[in-house]
Amino acid sequence: MFKQIELDYAKDALEPYIDALTVETHYGKHHVTYTNNFNAACEKAGITSDDAAAVLADLDSVADEATRTALRNNGGGYYNHNLYFANFSANPKKAPEGKLAEKINEKFGSLEKLIEELSSLAATQFGSGWAWLSVAPDGSLVTSKTGNQDNPISLKTGNTPIIALDVWEHAYYLKYKNVRPDYIKAFFEILDWGKVEALYEKAAG
């Protein structure tokens, strides 16, 4: 059975950037629903794997279209939100170091340029979706955006996400209303680059 990540910070610890009510609603309701529905879809499909990424990468093996769609939508919601909430901190490391910093400078020129690119992808995603920083099989970095609960794994890019920027309205509307760019700016204030470094090292091997 798949379980939500446990937050290592209090629900009000991300304020003033993300308020406690948004965390309670987003994590405690939306993410719970995706998790429960993903488990139900896995049970229906006879899937016993405890690796959500492996399930999303192998959706084509599920013959029933409705079950496959349920796995894609709810498995994506489960996986995406686990990554989203895992990367926040009340006292985040403000900039990456080591190999990740090198790769960012190599690909984007600077951390500021990477943040600008991710922010633009997030701001221009029409409707619900996500902006991503992922690691390619050769260890290089790739930015992208996806609609709904798709991600680089379910889309079979071969890349491993290490930053998930949620731009569904439930992620920000209680505090920021329709001003998505203000929420995107706030996202980077609580993104812990130490956690992202660890994800990069794991993905790059």
Describe what you observe in this structure:
The chain has helices spanning 20-45, 52-57, 65-86, 98-108, 111-124, 173-176, 180-190, 193-204, and strands spanning 129-135, 141-147, 160-166. With 205 residues, the protein is mostly helical. The chain has a three-stranded antiparallel beta sheet. Helix 1 (20-45) runs antiparallel to helix 3 and helix 5 (111-124) packs antiparallel against helix 7. The longest helix has 26 residues, at 20-45.
Task: Tell me the layout of helices and strands.
Blueprint: H1 20-45, H2 52-57, H3 65-86, H4 98-108, H5 111-124, E1 129-135, E2 141-147, E3 160-166, H6 173-176, H7 180-190, H8 193-204
Antiparallel strand pairs: 1-2, 1-3
Helix pairs in contact: 1-3, 5-7
